[in-house]
Design brief:
The complex is a heterodimer of chains A (147) and B (291). Chain A is mostly helical. Chain A is built from five helices and no strands. Classes of the chains: A mainly alpha (147), B mainly alpha (291).
């Protein structure tokens, strides 16, 4: 990949792209109240299922101000114990509802108790969870791109 | 912006602040929050400044700062699209995306002119949009590399916007280092998200490595084997191996940066941030495994 390119005139257009703050009407259309808000098309998240407050061990805790100014993204938590419980439930069949599908997405909708021998025991599970919760975020947004 | 978000790195966030000052306060706060994604400063703050420094870019300092702001806005869009693809977004900020693009373009135009700004703005989003929805090319190293570069379109395209005013030899030297760093960053991110990715049926390089340890492949894997993979990763050394691989790549990237015949202070700071996380995680993991 070559990075050279022809030199072009700079500052051809003034930075004054907006000589006055956006009109109130436009702002209302963007910031809006709930009547302006539409669910995200294609999002697999269920709008009625907000993520738990314990989400985002990988992110800084939100401030009071941030919570008031519409958090930009709400990243679904990953709960290993919950996922394992769903995957390895000892009951014959566990049907995942819409909420739990947001965790496992397209994971199998039923599980059986045939995999008992594959389960983590409580001690193993505790170690795994301790490791998971102790690890630092590997990429914090300071690393040039989305994961 | 919320006052408590202005510190401790307010100085680094200033370029974006200047752009957002054009907005009505409520909208400005919302865009600021989108760019920060729950962090103290906007994502990507200072990356372009660091690349400009390392490539001895002769561009005016204010222009570089605005290009940095444009890049931060592009990055915010890329992250947001990635969250939409992942199904992680449950708010309604998608309505702000066109505004982010408009601000990005305006800031870039003021820095490098209309033609170069349009090119950077177009490719910064088009590549990310095109590739974010594709499954990671996890099996083929070359495809994986191409995928990472596509997902890293904002930094690559805005680096190109700097290039005409930079030293050609330095640009040519930095490009492969930046590529290696981006691949490292993607590996680290995949490592952080691997469980969710696996349960969602996504393939990543990291997941393929973990499946191979368990004698599985992406096609043979069934969710019933999830616990087997978890055990291999956390209790049987899989994570340690993956972290060591990252640490090795970090050392190589850092060494290459140090070897550049230019001022790399800012570039090293960014690289060391990621490297510090890798090393700290190895230490923490050892503490759990070995007491």
């Amino acid at each position: 990949m070559r990075l050279r390119q022809a030199r072009e005139p700079r500052n051809a257009v003034s930075f004054a792209f907006c000589d006055q703050p956006l009109s109130r009407r436009r702002v209302a259309g963007i910031v809006g109240d709930s009547s302006h808000r539409q669910p995200l098309a294609g999002s697999r998240s269920a709008p009625e299922d907000p993520p738990a407050s314990s989400a985002c061990a990988h992110r800084l805790p939100r401030t009071h101000e941030q919570q008031q100014t519409s958090p930009p993204v709400a990243v679904a938590p990953f709960d290993l114990r919950r996922s394992l419980r769903l995957l390895l439930a000892s009951s014959a069949r566990v049907t995942l509802n819409r909420t739990t599908r947001t965790i496992g997405a397209e994971m199998a909708e039923t599980v059986t108790d045939e995999r008992t021998s594959d389960r983590l025991d409580e001690q193993e599970l505790s170690i795994v969870e301790a490791i998971r919760t102790d690890l630092l975020p590997m990429m914090t947004g300071d690393a040039c791109g989305p994961g | 912006m919320p006052a408590d978000l202005a510190s401790p790195s307010a100085a680094e966030a200033r370029p974006l602040d200047e752009v957002l000052a054009q907005l009505e306060p409520r909208l400005r706060d919302r865009v600021w929050a989108l760019c920060c994604r729950g962090r103290a400063v906007p994502i990507g703050s200072g990356h372009l400044l660091a690349l400009a420094e390392a490539s001895a870019c002769a561009m005016d300092g204010a222009a570089v700062a605005r290009l940095d702001a444009a890049y931060q806005l592009a990055l915010a869009q890329a992250f947001f699209v990635d969250d939409v693809v992942d199904g992680d977004v449950s708010t309604h900020d998608v309505a702000v995306l066109p505004l982010l693009k408009e601000l990005e373009l305006a800031a870039a135009v003021s820095a490098v002119g209309w033609v170069a700004a349009c090119r950077a703005s177009h490719w910064s989003s088009a590549q990310a949009l095109a590739l974010a929805g594709e499954p990671q090319a996890a099996g083929d190293p070359r495809a994986f590399r191409e995928n990472v570069l596509g997902r890293s379109a904002p930094v690559l395209t805005y680096f190109r916007a700097l290039a005409p005013a930079a030293r050609t030899d330095l640009v040519d030297a930095i490009e492969p280092i930046l590529t290696d760093y981006l691949i490292l960053a993607q590996l680290c991110d995949d490592l952080a998200d691997w469980e969710q990715d696996l349960l969602r049926g996504r393939q990543t390089w990291t997941i393929n490595q973990f499946l191979a340890r368990a004698g599985l492949t992406a096609t043979s894997y069934r969710h019933e084997q999830f616990v087997t993979v978890v055990r291999g990763v956390y209790l049987e050394g899989g994570l340690r191996e993956a972290l060591e691989e990252c640490a090795s790549r970090f050392s190589a990237v850092r060494g290459a940066i140090v070897g550049l015949p230019t001022d790399t202070t800012k570039l090293l700071r960014i690289c060391d941030h990621l490297g510090g996380l890798i090393i700290a995680n190895i230490t923490r993991l050892d503490r759990h495994v070995h007491g």
